[in-house]
Design brief:
Length: 312
C-alpha cells in the first residue's frame, strides 16, 4: 500500500520555538496512525539543544525536520517590513513551494496555534483548482478600520481577506505560479506600505484563487463564537495565553503546553509578563489601526496600483 505523507510546515526562531513545540505536540496527539506526518520547522538557526528537545516528540509515523532557509532569506534581506511584533520568520512560508519540490500539497501553520483532532482532515480537503485554502481573518473583520484597509488598501473584499497563519497549499500549482519570484518582484518593485506584510502580499497575489475554509480551521482567540470545538485555535496578534489570562480557548493551549518539553520555560514567560509589556501591545495595536487608516487613504497602495479601477 502506498504511504500517504502529510507535510506540515511551521516557521520559528529560538524565541518562538517553545510555542511551536506546543503546536507540534497538539498535532501529534491527534495524528492518525494510518498516515505519515512530516513536520518541517523552517528557521535561520535554532539552538541544537532546543531542536533536540522538539525531536523527542517524534513518533513512529511522525518525523520532525529543521530546515534552514537562510539562503532564501538573503534574497529579500533589507527589503522586509519588520516591527517589534513581527520577525523575519513570517516570510518563510513564501519559500515552501520552491524549497520542497517533493511535495505537491502541504499545510502551513503559524507557531501560535493548537490543533484539536487530526490535521489530516484539513490536508484531505479539496482546493477545487485554487492555489490555497484559508480562513477569512476575524481580526480584520472585527474592526472598521481594518475592514476598510482590506478593501481600500489591498483591494480584497474583507470577507475574502484571509489570514495566512493557516494555509492549505497546492504546492505544485504554486510552483507553476512562481509564487516566490512574483512575491519578490512585487516587494522590490513597489515596496508597498502594509499592516500585515506577508499576509497582505499573499492575499494580493492569490486574489481570486483562494478556497475559503470553515473558520473552525483557524478560529482566532478573539472570542468563543463557534459552535462546538474548533479544529484549530490560533492565538494571533496579542491574544497570547502565555501572556494574558482569560484568552478564549486558552485552556487548550495550557493543556498541550503541559505535555510539551518547554512547559517550565513557558510558565516562566507567563510569570514575568509585565504591565509595561502589555502597554507596548496596546500602543502597537493603536499604531496598526493608524497605519491601516493611512494606507487605505493613500493614493499609492495595492488597490490603486495593481487593481486600478476596482471598487470593493
Amino acid at each position: 500500500m502506498t504511504e500517504t505523507v502529510i507535510p506540515v510546515f511551521f516557521s520559528a526562531d529560538d524565541r518562538y520555538i517553545p510555542y511551536c513545540a506546543v503546536a507540534v505536540s497538539s498535532l501529534i496527539e491527534g495524528a492518525d496512525p494510518a498516515y505519515t506526518y512530516h513536520i518541517h520547522i523552517l528557521n535561520t538557526g535554532i539552538e541544537k539543544e532546543s531542536a533536540a528537545r522538539v525531536r523527542q516528540m517524534e513518533r513512529e509515523n511522525v518525523r520532525i525536520f529543521f530546515d534552514d532557509v537562510t539562503e532564501g532569506m538573503k534574497r529579500i534581506a533589507g527589503r522586509m517590513d519588520l516591527r517589534d511584533y513581527y520577525s523575519a520568520s513570517i516570510y518563510f512560508r513564501i519559500f515552501i513551494p520552491a524549497l520542497f519540490p517533493q511535495y505537491d500539497k502541504g499545510i502551513y501553520l503559524d507557531s501560535d496555534v493548537v490543533v484539536s483532532g487530526d490535521i489530516a482532515r484539513l490536508f484531505e480537503a479539496s482546493l477545487d483548482g485554487n492555489l490555497v485554502g484559508a480562513v477569512p481573518d476575524e481580526v480584520i473583520a472585527s474592526c472598521k478600520e481594518f475592514i476598510r484597509y482590506a478593501e481600500r488598501g489591498c483591494g480584497i473584499p474583507h470577507g475574502e481577506y484571509f489570514n495566512s497563519g493557516v494555509l492549505l497549499m497546492d504546492l505544485a500549482a504554486l510552483r507553476d505560479f512562481d509564487l516566490e519570484e512574483r512575491y519578490i518582484d512585487l516587494l522590490v518593485r513597489y515596496r508597498f506600505d502594509t499592516v500585515c506584510p506577508d499576509q497582505d502580499y499573499l492575499n494580493v497575489l492569490c486574489r481570486g484563487r483562494v478556497r475559503l475554509l470553515d473558520r473552525g480551521w483557524n478560529k482566532m482567540s478573539v472570542s468563543r463564537d463557534y459552535d462546538g470545538l474548533p479544529r484549530l485555535v490560533h492565538y494571533n496578534m496579542f491574544n497570547k495565553p502565555w501572556q494574558y489570562d482569560g484568552i478564549p480557548y486558552g485552556e487548550l493551549f495550557w493543556k498541550h503546553a503541559a505535555r510539551s518539553p518547554f512547559y517550565s520555560e513557558i510558565c516562566a514567560v507567563r510569570d514575568r509578563f509585565s504591565e509595561a509589556e502589555a502597554e507596548v501591545h496596546r500602543k502597537g495595536l493603536s499604531e496598526l489601526v493608524r497605519r491601516a487608516t493611512e494606507i487605505a487613504d493613500s493614493e499609492r497602495n495595492f488597490r490603486t496600483v495593481l487593481f486600478e479601477g476596482v471598487t470593493v
